[in-house]
Amino acid sequence: MLWGRLDEAAWPTKISNIDTKRAIAERLAERARDGDVIGIGSGSTSYLALMALRDRIKSEGLRVICIPTSHEIETYCAVMGLEVTTLVASRPDWCFDGADEVDPDHNMIKGRGGAFLREQLVFAAAAQRVILVDKSKFVEQLGLTHDLPLGVVPEAVELVHDRLVSELGTAPTVRSAGGKDGGVITEQGHLIMDLALDGSLSASDLERLLLTTPGIAATGLFVGYEFEIIS
Ligand code: 5RP
What we know:
Blueprint: H1 18-29, E1 37-40, H2 44-60, E2 65-68, H3 71-79, E3 83-84, E4 94-97, E5 101-102, E6 108-109, H4 116-125, E7 128-132, E8 148-152, H5 157-168, E9 173-174, E10 191-195, H6 203-211, E11 216-219, E12 221-222, E13 228-230
Parallel strand pairs: 1-2, 1-4, 2-3, 4-7, 7-13
Antiparallel strand pairs: 5-6, 6-12, 8-10, 8-11, 9-10
């Protein structure tokens, strides 16, 4: 089996705040109903929630169909023997995902793992949404603990840099895989650029600027969605 037994130890890094995340995952799994199509988020909290969901599906014989938000979660679903579909064939009745930051207006920064484009597609497509966050994710203003990831068409890196410096006075930086490995590439082939936020623009004005900047294909900024929080 690709990743051996799919338990907590299979997650590639040490999971922070794991006791809280485990409790959140258990509460999330209680929501599943027979026949649900569920969007499955990415990140460690979503992984724990997927394991809890798998346990319910297997023990109660539920029929649940998953729409994953990343190759990684897609493969975990397959290894767990869960049924998977796509947004081409179906729509989620509900979805769950983690977040890096949530502000008081429920705007979010997501995508630390680089899966933000598919995460945004599944989130937008879902009839109901649940965000799974421990208390460390709540911020007064976006950008306080995480930069905002941007998915940038590789040949537009300089164009995007120059436009954001001119509009915001802040230079985004290409996220490096370290050493000789070069820039981090998303599943869709975009380079990730990280943008530090200073709160000078509202989340919706910032989103408008970014999505009208040629070369920015996606961002980890989630604005204007309604969702429930389990924390
Ligand atoms: C991945 C994400 C994650 O949901 C976010 O980074 C939170 O991760 P974790 O649950 O590991 O704290 O947006 O793209």
